[in-house]
Fold this sequence. Notes:
The structure is a homotetramer.
Chain A lengths: L1 E7 L4 H11 L4 E9 L4 E8 L5 H11 L5 E5 L4 E7 L4 H11 L5 E8 L5 H5 L5 E3 L7 H13 L5 E4 L8 H6 L4 E5 L11 H8 L3 E8 L9 E8 L6 H24 L3 E4 L2 E4 L1
Parallel strand pairs in A: 5-6, 5-8, 6-7, 8-9
Antiparallel strand pairs in A: 1-3, 1-4, 2-3, 9-10, 10-11, 12-13
Amino acid sequence: MILKITCTDTKGLIYKVTKCLYEAGLNIVKNDEYVDTDVNRFFMRTEYEGNEGGDAILERLKSLLPKDAKIKLTPDRRRRIILMASKEHHCLSDIVNRCENDDLQADIQCVISNHEVLRKSAARYDIPFYFIDHRKYSRQDHEKKILEVIDQYDIDYIILAKYMRILSSDFVQKYRNRMINIHHSFLPAFKGARPYNQAYMRGVKVIGASAHFVSEDLDEGPIIEQDTIRVHHGYSPREMAKAGKDVEKIVLARALDLVFQEKVFIQGNKTIVF
Amino acid sequence: MILKITCTDTKGLIYKVTKCLYEAGLNIVKNDEYVDTDVNRFFMRTEYEGNEGGDAILERLKSLLPKDAKIKLTPDRRRRIILMASKEHHCLSDIVNRCENDDLQADIQCVISNHEVLRKSAARYDIPFYFIDHRKYSRQDHEKKILEVIDQYDIDYIILAKYMRILSSDFVQKYRNRMINIHHSFLPAFKGARPYNQAYMRGVKVIGASAHFVSEDLDEGPIIEQDTIRVHHGYSPREMAKAGKDVEKIVLARALDLVFQEKVFIQGNKTIVF
Amino acid sequence: MILKITCTDTKGLIYKVTKCLYEAGLNIVKNDEYVDTDVNRFFMRTEYEGNEGGDAILERLKSLLPKDAKIKLTPDRRRRIILMASKEHHCLSDIVNRCENDDLQADIQCVISNHEVLRKSAARYDIPFYFIDHRKYSRQDHEKKILEVIDQYDIDYIILAKYMRILSSDFVQKYRNRMINIHHSFLPAFKGARPYNQAYMRGVKVIGASAHFVSEDLDEGPIIEQDTIRVHHGYSPREMAKAGKDVEKIVLARALDLVFQEKVFIQGNKTIVF
Amino acid sequence: MILKITCTDTKGLIYKVTKCLYEAGLNIVKNDEYVDTDVNRFFMRTEYEGNEGGDAILERLKSLLPKDAKIKLTPDRRRRIILMASKEHHCLSDIVNRCENDDLQADIQCVISNHEVLRKSAARYDIPFYFIDHRKYSRQDHEKKILEVIDQYDIDYIILAKYMRILSSDFVQKYRNRMINIHHSFLPAFKGARPYNQAYMRGVKVIGASAHFVSEDLDEGPIIEQDTIRVHHGYSPREMAKAGKDVEKIVLARALDLVFQEKVFIQGNKTIVF
């Protein structure tokens, strides 16, 4: 089981939590704590052996910890996810293969796209594919159609695997902290459209990618994972994009793995990643 | 000798240059070319053995190449530089030690600072140190005092080794393409003041540094070299700054080494680095 | 067209080659040269526009260059490859998706495996899959069976995409310079079996992967590409292997892309990569 | 204060330690734990506010923890170190400057060298320099002379900052776990002499450096920190060494900073680094 706790920081929190687990006869396998002193907040993630102790442990912890404590107890299980994508295959292909081969503990319920191009990629893995053409609908209706599809499924997370349309504030709020995007730049550099073109115009020597939770401000949500690679003057925008794809898919996959293992906490506009 | 050529791209340029050197009996050791197709411009850097052939080669090349060709022939020699710095020692210490031990082919003429703190660091290496207090003068007078010092020396480059004052447009223009700055972020992210604080507030997972030629727009000049390192939520702004210092000094030293070896061309707001 | 030349280094080689192309009215797009001074050997790769000039250019160059010159003129075309793999899917999945989506200019003719597990992965992409069980045959017969399959296809390269059997000297010689392997360590560290276990036992803080041409000495062939990632004491051998998979597949894909673009020369036990 | 504990792993250890500190009214600032399941050993590092509680806490913990527990309580203080070096300045220069400017919490007592070349570098910082010529003495006598110098000082650590002589088993044992070396390769690749030459001959695409505790087996001691940088075919052994110097000095400095902050545990031939 994975136990996640956040609450106001006070003396003795680790002691209280570990005491509670000790007295329940549970063996801690891995333990991480962090205090964000800016906001005086405590974060703790504890893995213990077995799937026992659920409700009793929760009750006991509630009585011991500060009243504002958020306590989450999650068994080790595969997450249910939906992928949204536009035309580029690399992130989708990568996630699909990881899931099929148990490198990522998730099951893809369906793919939703505003283009037809990735239908074949989804079909190869027998994953339902919904083409919802953004040119046929108003923005509002387009999102309504997407939500109708999503509502058919019981899901944990929505993954924007190179989905190139901006989602409305309403949409984002509905899946707050449950929607993860890969942005093809090293945020906060090159926010917005065509980041590789921006990077090329600026003549940078390093490019990157950022996986983040989606918030209402475009490309401003809490960053989960980032990485970079070197480029040089000889890279065209197209070659930068090609080199960048490898970083994008690896960064997104690492972020998903961290989130699915319950290793990520959101605090304001930042993440704590154990 | 190092030969640098830039001109409008046309067919046969490499052929013409190498023919000219071949006929002069010179042996090419290293050769790099690049065409910036956006602006149809050709760049070539050629190292050949020996220090011969100077004026004759230049004349011959001028007659063969397009009229807009810029041709520069440089013998292998140590550059004469001035360091400007404020309070932090790490870039200055690093450059001073590299120069003293022949890891960087340059001689430091003097250090100019708007604080007293680095006097000892300069003194340890018997380098003249000029403290010009920005609190005692108007911005204009302060720069005038600095220029009076610089004018005493015959120099190739001014290195802003963590000099934390913004220089006026007039100052920058006077040393156009001859002034190199280290910015303590991965540009264009976190331009301006206190980039590590900005990085901390944004919750990034990677930080970086950028060495660039100084242009009139702050932190917008042509980037020569950049690099990054990973950080995590546990880094305070102070710890980010500490980790960043190592990247800053290495990135600046690499940039200087490239420039002093004549491996860098400036084209618009970008560099070509061979 | 891509022109590759290697020969004994003498004065004027670049001049002679560029003259030949200039006089044929061909426009050079990209040009790279290198001299390995240890063995006094010259390497040049030139991309020129169009697919013209083939035989005539070759004849002309032969007459101009030293007698030992190897000259290769290749049109831009997709390579024909065979993948050999054992049980792990990540390199195979990655290559298959890149080829299907034009991120890698190659067509996979078939997959050969000594296990059944990857049959489904190949089938999803309608790629013929040959299961040749190494437990059923002597080493010699096993390779004979493999060669019978390979002989049915006209191929450019064999890719060992995590094929975990050692191939005999005879097999290797037959495909000298045409067989590329991904080794799951930063060679020459951790040669041989179970490198992640070796890395774990040694307590390293960085792990890596190496793509190389296969030579008769195990893990000793010319290295094409390598990369590394950081690990720490908390990684079990299994977690190192998981983290390493991402490096392996990216390193192998980059190596293949370089080879297929004719950017790689082999010189003795090293590569020159432009 | 920094509290370090290692002992056989049993249930409730974190609980017991945190309880002890909680009851003493001490506030934990940072806490890290790790269990090495291979050897069933528990490691814990706890930073708490203030310098109080020393002996009483130690006594209390001894009574609570398993009998094999090693408990170390260290106030935050500068370490006393000796540098040993041969001819290369870069690691020595870097450490000297960090110590002088408070980037590294240590005071250099003296420099011991088997060459004269670094005398000036030490003199610039008024650090005693002992030249002990290895050509004048037998190996045994040479080490005896070195030990005579070391014995004059009360030190915490000896830093081999590019000291290029192998030390005898007796010498190493005397400073077991207190002597840190920087090896100029990515261990275990290229053990022994002239690693850049070995790397060049092998044609690697990445080089590295490793900081490790010195053990009796050359280059086999517990690794504290490693890092790598990319090179290519165009790097001569000399250019590899030049590029490598930057990695060496940064890796060594990071390792020292970790050790001096009591963030490193040694377990067998590995380190746990918090």
